[in-house]
Amino acid sequence: xxxxxxxxxxxxxxxxxxxxxxxxxxxxxxxxxxxxxxxxxxxxxxxxxxxxxxxxxxxxxxxxxxxxxxxxxxxxxxxxxxxxxxxxxxxxxxxxxxxxxxxxxxxxxxxxxxxxxxxxxxxxxxxxxxxxxxxxxxxxxxxxxxxxxxxxxxxxxxxxxxxxxxxxxxxxxxxxxxxxxxxxxxxxxxxxxxxxxxxxxxxxxxxxxxxxxxxxxxxxxxxxxxxxxxxxxxxxxxxxxxxxxxxxxxxxxxxxxxxxxxxxxxxxxxxxxxxxxxxxxxxxxxxxxxxxxxxxxxxxxxxxxxxxxxxxxxxxxxxxxxxxxxxxxxxxxxxxxxxxxxxxxxxxxxxxxxxxxxxxxxxxxxxxxxxxxxxxxxxxxxxxxxxxxxxxxxxxxxxxxxxxxxxxxxxxxxxxxxxxxxxxx
Length: 425
Known about the structure:
Elements lengths: L16 H20 L8 H32 L1 H7 L4 H25 L12 H20 L14 H12 L4 H20 L6 H52 L15 H18 L2 E9 L2 H8 L1 H17 L7 E6 L2 E7 L3 H16 L16 E9 L6 H17 L5 E4 L2
Parallel strand pairs: 4-5
Antiparallel strand pairs: 1-3, 1-4, 2-3
Helix pairs in contact: 1-8, 2-4, 4-5, 5-6, 5-7, 6-7, 6-8, 7-8, 8-9, 10-11
């Protein structure tokens, strides 16, 4: 894949234009796959390889554990053999214990040690190939016995194919196209086994066949849905890693010395608007929500006139600290726009959540209980908050969003200040 995201954000470097374009193209493909699906259970080649490699360690562990457990179950069916086909017990015991089990254990051991002869030839699909071969071997051991036994219960013996099919499609979680191939092979072996019995009762043919075919279809559907969900989780993980990387890069850019408002220590207007443009681009690409909080200290000019500019600067610093402390998510950013105005950017945030954050910040400022005897709103310092939340789309710009936040703030002031007013475009 042209752009692969590690699970941990690494040191951030500026992307050159070609890398940025490649990254955006990859994210567009991921978004398209999440929206439109992938009915053929396959991604474009680079994404497919990344998906297979990402899942490989967990699949290898699962293969070893499920393989050992399945061997125990497989040999445990000797009890059923004794009850159903006692005339073939010695042959079945040899097939199970002296042929299939040693070969399977040797294959599992070589796989565990990483020295399996097929490992270099099939590095990403070895688990599926070995599972398929193991299932075919188990089914073949049933097919060998069916035409040889004279037991009256042999006609029910083909039901054992249901266990083998369930093992391959559900327990071992074959990839879908391998599962489809495996299912057809099992049905072929089943049909051959039934046809090899000249005395197979016609009245049992449909009940047993319908059970085996139903299990094949149900487990194949289950396999399809499990892989579909796994692939969706992989795509969402890539998208989340991309978001973390983008936010980390955006924050890294904001760490330049010119980004800081010297009085409050918050981001300044220039850099918060650059940050907002990056977040907006990301939100538009991912079709995600974005919210802005525009915060203004009520009657701040009167505060300065009464208590002096030194007290006003201290007031701004205290307000800045509570606003910063009130943001709980890593991607949320607060900045001082100038004077007594602050801007909070909330990525991936809808209107309801943004209003809750705004109210929490308003209460936090009010809880400072900074004396403001010149205020006509309250006897202590308060703030008004304008909230705008939107789902990013091409017809909406950052400038329009800021204008709407300003309008929401003015409405909060006109309704009495010390309140939150929300607006959704």
